[in-house]
Amino acid sequence: MKLTQRTYQSDRDYWNIRTFLREVLLANDRREIAWPLYRWDYWRWHVNENILKFNLSAAVFMWETADGRLAAVLHPDGAGEAFLQVHPAFRCLELEVAMLSAAEMQFATTQADGRQRLVVWAHEYDHVRQDVLKRRGYAKGNDPEYQRRREMSQPLPAVPTPTGYRLRALRDVGEHPARSWLAWKTFHPDASDATYAGWEWYANVQRAPLYRRDLDLVAVIPNGAFAAFCTLWYDDVTHTAAFEPVGTHPEHRRRGLAKALMAEGLRRVRDLGATRCTVGSYSEAAGALYASLGFTAYDVCEPWVKEW
């Protein structure tokens, strides 16, 4: 079938891509062969809006049928990366080659020595894509993503709240500064506080269509300060939920806070109707935590690197 390539044009494309990703997730038995919906929302409203600031018309490419049905989407995550989202009904060698050619032209970054570099992500069992990548000069890189999942029919673990802490949902905008500061100290523990960029970015996270404040959870100490957090995203069309992100302030680690928050989150999305929950990880420590909560099944998405 002949497909037409074009660039992202308007918010209408944003909503069409959301519909497309739902269709692809369901067609793939809810395995994350392509991005799940929450990740597209999170990338659009946080990663890109607050950090990368890509011009979407120059960063998102779409392949459509003659009658306008979306068949594939190409976009970055960070600079120098490419993600190929393809509906299984349209998977073919010709489309893979076309998307990789576009990615190499649009997303490769220039290194200090003048060479170009691109990272393309592929699942470990996607032999079609891997074969194309090898023939185009890519080599498998390090630090794959472990896409963990658990069925919500499994019993939920009974995890006590550590003594001295209280678990609850984030409140109104007045708590954005505390929530933002906690994220900063969690993910940048060695950075100078002078480089902290403020809290206004969190309003963009809440603009994502799947965001729910009752699924944005925090652990609070008696003086009101935040010690840990986890945010869940629930899609009531596919009945899937996901954790992104999960974190604990360095001064409050190894006390079971992340596990307690995640257990509370699992209870909440189960009660909303979730039948599957997912979480991604890159480290063994995170993987052990998630496995202890029933996230024992997983797929592996691997980075493939080319320099030229």
From TrEMBL:
<feature type="domain" description="N-acetyltransferase">
    <location>
        <begin position="168"/>
        <end position="308"/>
    </location>
</feature>
<dbReference type="InterPro" id="IPR016181">
    <property type="entry name" value="Acyl_CoA_acyltransferase"/>
</dbReference>
<dbReference type="InterPro" id="IPR000182">
    <property type="entry name" value="GNAT_dom"/>
</dbReference>
<protein>
    <submittedName>
        <fullName>GCN5-related N-acetyltransferase</fullName>
    </submittedName>
</protein>
<dbReference type="Pfam" id="PF00583">
    <property type="entry name" value="Acetyltransf_1"/>
</dbReference>
<dbReference type="GO" id="GO:0016747">
    <property type="term" value="F:acyltransferase activity, transferring groups other than amino-acyl groups"/>
</dbReference>
